[in-house]
Protein 1
Amino acid sequence: MPIDPTAPYDPDNIFARILRGEIPCKKVYEDEYALAFHDINPQAPLHVLVIPKGPYVSWEDFSAQASDADIVGFVRAVGQVARDAGLVEPGYRLLANVGQHGHQEVAHLHVHIFGGRQFGAMLPR
Ligand code: 5GP
């Protein structure tokens, strides 16, 4: 069920619980700004989620409310995860779903990194 990207942050959302260590994840990267882990239901040979450590529902409030340091730190972390996974030379895809039309299901900002195969056209037509 898609979430409302304008709703207040829910501290009990699943990714908040992963950040607090209440739910396990297959971690691939962590720094001061971000945590990256394998998606539980991978849709590509490599499917990693990168989430900011701050309480942001979606790209909407992150881009509007986060500090410059948090934005820089998060964007650099996404690039680092892709680099560490060896995805730069073959290429990869980033995706951030937002709200109803974007079909965002977890109410904590996450960027999907997909890699390991040729993806073809950007969206189904
Ligand atoms: P969205 O549709 O919100 O962009 O994507 C949410 C993603 O989170 C989905 O790809 C889903 O498989 C993943 N996901 C949902 N719950 C969990 C979980 O508990 N652990 C992990 N690792 N991924 C999850």
Note: The chain is about 25% helix and 20% strand.
Protein 2
Amino acid sequence: MTRKQIIAGNWKMHKTHSEARSLALEVVADAGGGSAKEMVLCPPFTALQTVAEAVSGSAVALGAQNVHWEDEGAYTGEVSVPMLAALGCRYVIVGHSERRQYFGETDATLAKKLKAVAKRGMIPILCIGETKEQREKDETEAVVKTQLDGALGNWQAGDPGALVIAYEPIWAIGTGLTATPEQAQEVHGKIRAHLEGAFGEGFSSGIRVLYGGSVKPDNAADLLGCPDIDGALVGGASLKAESFLGIFRA
Ligand code: PGA
């Protein structure tokens, strides 16, 4: 099955709304219409509206970096799925390692978020990945399987396009240390095999599994050329149009 690759920019806590507008316009101007890849921009909440306007009419999709699982209520500081849907978000990053590490997100709350996002027809990008210590202790496979099982316990297999997984080894995020294509492909293959066991071959062969962790224009082509790598979730290199477009074109 051919899977359309996704190149998603996770801007994290960077860019005011006006800085975000400039970057989004620069990216959209050069993204080209007929690419074989799909581009997604995930600005902070405060810039979603301006980036939505900047990408409107283009093939570039909008994504958010987090969401709450309830539609509304007394949850000070939180943002809901209907709020994101109203702005035209197509994707939501769920369970980024920084959310797990600094904000105590657990597989159980991620499962609720995934369900809420899918219910509205939006596509969650579920992030998983091991720490340096876990890799050194040879626990990578067990860690990613536990994360998948924990967050996807209630997931209804169906359209494989309704879910995206991002494998992001924590030791590679923002460190300049990238997994080699061989290391990444090995884990991606195991993720796909595990999803086949859980949801069947049709689902596992159709789902996109992105790689994230210090993806740059000069390492993107080798990573994206691996058979089980279906795109990239890009942090640092997504903050400049030139480097992000370099990855998009790789
Ligand atoms: P990085 O971040 O590209 O800066 O390593 C990736 C991510 O955290 O999604």
Note: Residues 73 and 80 are 9 Å apart (CA to CA).
